[in-house]
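> call design_seq(struct)
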């Protein structure tokens, strides 16, 4: 049995945060239904030429079913209202005000289901001057101050990353909060409203910099890959074209292990590097010595040599390297799923095992409306004649009546 096998989750998710959270619930065994419409697509379905063959969407929306419905109609809203009555957890991350305009804000949902756990996750949270602002992961990185640190010291501007780190962290906070509410409901019978600002999640990743300013009035500056607590600490170029190895030495004991591993060259005995405080003061010179040593060596040789001596080191891998990584292969970290449109594709697997539960697996992301009729029969107990009539009226959406729908970013 899976941990959340009897839990029903209704997801009004778009983009990354709520879809990724729904995926995690699905992998834990919950019955996750993604409510979507061909008239107002999850924007992740629009970043390619085919709404059912988008890599990012198909990653974040695994392990759930798609219920396609026209929410501009009263009949469509009534169907969703019936699903809310059956739901344990409702997730939404639409822009502020959207759920209220649909008639599915917390106050309305609670009338239908007093015990519902309702998770609302906007970029800037509910209420306040920015609550209705549009937000995406890179924007949250900037609002939190993260981008001010995300660069090399001599870069003329914040470099940042196109990996929306706050999104992926926020999705895990959604799951934690909802599970806590689920436990509270089990003990008290009461539901919960959970308001989670994604920008607050991003802020939580920057705590040490706020603390430094509060007590020392010191504004953090970009350090690149360097650390105020370790030296050497960085990514160093190895033999070959664009091959690198990351090295981190925190303690004096690790420093002695590092020196022994590289053969104790004369420069390692210089008093300038005798302890961490001195190494931090002379880190630029230290980095030059390490670059000279490492430049003639294969990155994997460096990693294995230092790891054998008890020093943290790791090759900077690209996608093909990661897929071939012997440790990840041993763990079964990458799984192949057969998607009805995209075909066989590789995805990250569930990154943990539970000894008392059945093995957790993923199922492919759904086509738009793929499970609409199934959900109508199974949960709403609707006869086939009524289902087919609503499909004809374009109130229910299935793969058959969403073929080629939607306008992508590519026209």
């Amino acid at each position: 049995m899976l941990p959340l096998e009897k839990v029903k989750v209704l997801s009004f998710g778009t983009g990354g945060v709520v879809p990724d959270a729904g995926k995690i619930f699905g992998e834990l065994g919950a019955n996750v239904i993604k409510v979507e419409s061909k008239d107002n697509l999850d924007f992740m379905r629009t970043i390619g030429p085919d709404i059912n063959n988008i890599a990012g969407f198909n990653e974040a929306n695994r392990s759930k079913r798609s219920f396609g419905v026209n929410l501009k109609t009263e009949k469509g809203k009534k169907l969703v209202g019936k699903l809310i009555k059956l739901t344990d957890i409702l997730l939404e991350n639409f822009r502020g005000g959207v759920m209220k305009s649909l008639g599915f804000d917390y106050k309305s949902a609670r009338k239908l289901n007093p015990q519902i756990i309702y998770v609302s996750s906007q970029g800037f949270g509910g209420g306040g001057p920015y609550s209705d602002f549009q937000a995406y992961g890179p924007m949250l990185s900037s609002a939190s101050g993260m981008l001010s640190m995300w660069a090399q010291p001599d870069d003329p501007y914040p470099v940042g990353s196109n990996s929306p780190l706050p999104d992926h962290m926020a999705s895990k906070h959604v799951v934690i909060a909802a599970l806590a509410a689920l436990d509270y409901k089990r003990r008290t019978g009461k539901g919960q409203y959970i308001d989670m600002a994604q920008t607050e999640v991003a802020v939580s990743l920057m705590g040490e910099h706020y603390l430094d300013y509060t007590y020392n009035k010191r504004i953090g500056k970009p350090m690149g890959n360097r650390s105020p607590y370790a030296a050497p600490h960085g990514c160093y170029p190895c033999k070959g074209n664009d091959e690198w190895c990351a090295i981190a030495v925190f303690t004096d004991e690790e420093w002695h292990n590092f020196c022994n591993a590289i053969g104790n060259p004369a420069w390692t005995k210089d008093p300038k590097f005798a302890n961490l405080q001195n190494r931090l003061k002379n880190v630029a010179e230290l980095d030059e010595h390490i670059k000279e040593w490492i430049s003639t060596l294969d990155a994997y040789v460096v990693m294995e040599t230092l790891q054998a001596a008890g020093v943290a080191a790791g090759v900077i891998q690209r996608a093909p390297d990661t897929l071939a990584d012997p440790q990840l292969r041993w763990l079964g970290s990458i799984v192949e799923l057969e998607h009805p449109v995209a075909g066989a594709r590789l995805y990250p697997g569930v990154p943990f095992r539970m000894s008392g539960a059945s093995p957790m697996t993923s199922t492919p992301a759904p086509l738009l409306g793929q499970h609409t009729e199934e959900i109508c029969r199974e949960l709403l107990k609707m006869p086939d004649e009524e289902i087919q009539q609503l499909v004809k009226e374009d109130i229910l959406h299935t793969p058959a009546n969403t073929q080629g729908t939607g306008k992508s970013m590519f026209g």
